[in-house]
Amino acid sequence: MVVFFLSIGLEIKREILEGELSNWKKRILPGYAAIGGMIVPALIYLYFNINAPVSLLKGWAIPTTTDIAFTLGVLSIIGSRIPSSLKVFLTALTILDDVGAVIIIACFYTKNLNFFMLGGAIFIVAVLYLFNLYSVTRFYAYGLIGLVLCFFIGQAGIHTTIAGIIVAMSIPFKSHSDSISHESFYRLEKRLKPWITFIILPMFVFANAGIPLYDASFLTLTDPVTLGVMFGLFAGKQIGIFLFSFIIIRIGWANLPEKSTWLLLYGISVLCGTGFTMSLFITLQAFPDSLILQNKIKIGIILASITSIILSAVILRLSKNREETPKTIQKAS
């Protein structure tokens, strides 16, 4: 998954420097929506597990994430006539959601630190900073240094996926002398995409999403952990994203995305309940030694994701029909 996080890091950097997160005005609405989409699901999970053993509370972050690849992929299928402004909003929201996931993993799922190895990791980060400073664009150099960084970070007790983000942030987007264009950065991003889409993510999902049928019992479905994850993703995401967006727009800090409606915005909020890859990943960090808990959580993730996709498709379809009806009447008259 280090390569997956490298890809996420490249996307975040590009969007911050010249994309949908390039200034504070563009960041406000998706930023607050992402915060709401993390806070409410976490609270719902904790509510369902308030009387559970303390060890189960480690799963609070599982329903806080949105699967960027699945969400954007599903929207391209079910939302062909969705305004481009809403697609931009969803892209920015899911990217900021990934930033939140990276911070959560670094802060809450880190083992006891080995400060000697951490010192080695800091030295490697300094080398990467020099690479950026002198506009080194030889990707194999970043790859080799990245492998060394993975070793030191892993031995330091920090999850190695953080190395992918650090390497991505160190790759120059544009040289300081302006003699090198963005082409090399885009080229790397383009090369990674098919590997991520067709090999790394499918392998991760197939390896970790399998659920033995005997685990899918009524007791499993009513288990507080399963319910916390399921309702955290399905209900928490849509409530948090839509509520925070509504408040920010109503108080005048941001505007409703161009050519969109409240119903469309709600449909997009519901779609963000598609957790899947990132939720599965955090599950493995929170409960690495409990296959039973992992299977319960997987059931919750899959049910929430499927339900979110179906309900979102219905809402977006209804919204489209409501827009088309006045046009049909106008033509008939």
TrEMBL record:
Pfam families: Na_H_antiport_1
Coiled coil: none
GO biological process: regulation of pH
Family annotation (InterPro entries): Na/H_antiporter_dom_sf (IPR023171), NhaA (IPR004670)
Key words of the record: Antiport, Cell inner membrane, Cell membrane, Ion transport, Membrane, Sodium, Sodium transport, Transmembrane, Transmembrane helix, Transport
Locations listed in the record: Cell inner membrane
GO cellular component: plasma membrane
Any one GO MF annotation of this record: sodium:proton antiporter activity
Gene3D superfamilies given in the database record: Na+/H+ antiporter like domain
UniProt key word tRNA processing: no
Function: Na(+)/H(+) antiporter that extrudes sodium in exchange for external protons.
UniProt record similarity statement: Belongs to the NhaA Na(+)/H(+) (TC 2.A.33) antiporter family.
NCBIfam families: NhaA
Stored PANTHER family: NA(+)_H(+) ANTIPORTER NHAA, SODIUM ION/PROTON ANTIPORTER NHAA-RELATED
Protein name, per record: Na(+)/H(+) antiporter NhaA
Phylogenetic lineage: Bacteria, Pseudomonadati, Pseudomonadota, Alphaproteobacteria, Hyphomicrobiales
Gene it is expressed from: nhaA
